[in-house]
Design goal:
heterodimer; A: about 200 residues; mainly alpha; Arc Repressor Mutant, subunit A; 2 domains; B: about 240 residues; about 0% strand
Chain lengths: ~200, ~240
């Protein structure tokens, strides 16, 4: 019989605590094990939020900060969740240091006229690389919301908490991001103004 | 509902986040409006494609740089105090680094030279033993390849020193790398003439490990200097001096 979810979670939680403890004690290979397990997801997050070039430096900072702060990890959430939150905050700090704001929308998607029936439509599934490229054309605010919601699966409430914006703003930013991506992917790019 | 009413709600519609009444009203509009139906279709595709975007494997050198920083003590294990008492100037620290590296690498080189090359006695074996010897040899080959890959990547990073590290320190680091390279070449030559020689293998692995260490120090130092972090550079140097 397959173990229940709660049993799986307990086992996984115990494993996370044990790994954190081994890292804290400087056991050889422990921190590399943690890095290898979580770096790809966090690097994906950082690439999509800040761009590939800055993501490499940021990933180093994320894991060096994690190494320094592992003493604060008490197992309230999974190590993956703890690291994800830490990584998201570092990406946001980076974007803020570059002047990105998350609540203010300086372009006016809502004022655009309704799309015409003859407008191009995606005929097939969206290619992954095309979507990655299209993401880079989004302003940081709506790109962040799109990555956190559609790629990483966070709820609007969680995004609101992380970014310091309301759920409603998160929803409207998400819609704006999807509409812009649709425009880029169907070759009808309408990128007017930018978010600071 | 008109298109102007419906279109701002379409993302919430595809996520089923509208109230039941609104969901029904948008659905009714979509039954009669091709333009809004097309947008809904596209938004669903964008959302579904985003869900399929997976993790991205970071380049190997990132872990090497993180490991180097941790090993050098810039980021001590949680609960251990960070190095704080760094009062010497960076120039003196660099001289300290240079001296420490020369002593470490020359010492290791001399130890390797003094080690008597005692060839391992050939072992009588059956088929199973031969198999395990083969698998050990394979693993050793992989380990050596791992070092070679790490060194190649670190060398590429270290070559980007466009004057970041001052010429005197760079020259000392290069001198150390030359010493280690000679040790690597000698160990490889010894292994080529006697593939079973354990001392030659130990020397090779030790020399490769030292090369990774010196290159990690070089890259970490360059990073700190580029960031304008004199304290960080001093800590890298202090950490290298302790190793």
């Amino acid at each position: 019989m397959a173990p229940s979810n709660s049993v799986n979670e307990a086992v996984s939680g115990h494993r996370d605590l044990a790994l954190a403890e081994r890292c804290r004690n400087g056991v050889a290979g422990a921190f590399e094990e943690l890095y290898q397990a979580h770096a790809p997801r966090l690097f994906g997050l950082a690439c999509r939020m800040v761009g590939r070039t800055d993501a490499e430096d940021l990933l180093q900072d994320i894991f060096l900060t994690a190494h320094r702060k592992l003493g604060l990890y008490k197992g309230e959430s999974s190590l993956g969740t703890w690291l994800f939150r830490l990584a998201t905050n570092q990406c946001l700090d980076f974007l803020r240091s570059r002047g990105a704001r998350f609540a203010q929308v300086t372009d006016t998607l809502e004022e655009e006229p309704p799309a015409a029936a003859s407008a191009g439509t995606m005929r097939s599934a969206v290619d992954r690389l095309d979507l990655e490229r299209a993401l880079t054309t989004l302003p940081p605010g709506c790109r962040t919301v799109f990555v956190l919601h559609d790629v990483e699966g966070l709820e609007h409430r969680e995004i609101g908490d992380l970014l310091g914006i309301s759920e409603g703003t998160s929803k409207s930013q998400l819609h704006k991001a999807r509409m812009r991506l649709r425009g880029v992917l169907t070759g009808r790019t309408v990128v007017r103004g930018s978010e600071g | 509902m008109t298109c102007r009413d419906v279109q701002p709600r379409l993302s919430q519609f595809v996520d089923a986040e509208l109230s039941a009444d609104e969901q029904a009203a948008v659905s009714a509009h979509l039954d009669t409006c091709a333009a809004c139906r097309a947008i809904t279709h596209d938004l669903t595709r964008v959302r579904d494609a985003a869900r399929g975007l997976g993790p991205i494997a970071p380049p190997d050198h990132i872990w090497l740089e993180i490991a180097g920083q941790i090993r050098l003590g810039e980021h001590p294990a949680p609960g251990q105090p960070a190095p704080q008492d760094i009062r010497r100037s960076a120039a003196w620290q660099w001289l300290g680094l240079a001296a420490a590296l020369v002593i470490i690498t020359l010492g290791a080189f001399l130890v390797m030279r003094l080690q008597a090359p005692t060839p391992a006695a050939p072992q009588a074996g059956n088929g199973q033993a031969a198999g395990s010897v083969e698998s050990v040899a394979q693993e050793l080959g992989l380990a050596l390849q791992h070092y070679d890959n790490a060194i190649a990547q670190l060398e590429m990073l270290a070559k980007n020193n466009d004057g970041t590290i001052d010429p005197a320190t760079a020259a000392t680091l290069q001198k150390n790398l030359d010493v280690i390279d000679r040790a690597i070449a000698e160990s490889r030559a010894a292994l080529a003439s006697d593939p079973q020689s354990q001392p030659a293998l130990d020397s090779l692995i030790d020399a490769l490990r030292q090369k990774v260490g010196v290159l990690q120090t070089t890259v970490a130092l360059m990073n700190e200097i580029r960031r304008g972090n004199q304290e960080g550079a001093a800590r890298v140097v202090a950490g290298a001096g302790k190793s």
